[in-house]
Write a structure and sequence with these properties.
By secondary structure, the chain is mainly α. It folds into two domains: about 35 residues, no CATH class; about 80 residues. Helix content is about 55%, strand content about 0%. It has four helices and no strands. It is rod-shaped and about 85 Å long. The model has no long low-confidence stretch (mean pLDDT about 85).
């Protein structure tokens, strides 16, 4: 006797059944549900990594002060990817950390120099 029952009709299922012989309901492998429909290109399960990426990219624009947010969110995204490997997003996180951190620091220094120049004149 099988311990598994069809969630559709409630009748017992034979071991390893791919579909219910009574109602025809199909059962997918659990691993198929964990697959990424985008092929892993967009880490939609790791929002911190995705936002860090966009913060890093937009930090290239002068005086657009979101580079440091990309740095912080990139670190958070790496932690999330380490805890949940299926969520992906390591590359997006690193882009947010490196590019966002670099340009965030550059624009912070430029803004500081401009403020110093204005105050000293």
């Amino acid at each position: 006797m099988s311990d598994a029952y069809c969630p559709g009709c409630g009748k017992p299922l034979p071991p390893g059944a791919a579909y219910c012989v009574h109602c025809g309901r199909s059962f997918r492998d659990q691993a198929a549900d964990d697959r990424d429909a985008t092929g892993g290109i967009i880490p939609y399960k790791n929002s911190s990594a995705l936002i860090a990426y966009y913060c890093g990219v937009f930090a290239v624009i002068p005086c657009f002060p979101i580079g440091l947010a990309g740095l912080v969110l990139g670190i958070k995204g790496l932690r999330h990817a380490k805890e949940h490997p299926a969520s992906k997003g390591q590359v997006h996180s690193w882009i947010g950390i490196v590019v966002g951190g670099l340009f965030g620091l550059v624009w912070l220094v430029v803004t500081g120099m401009m403020a110093f120049a204005m105050l000293s004149s």
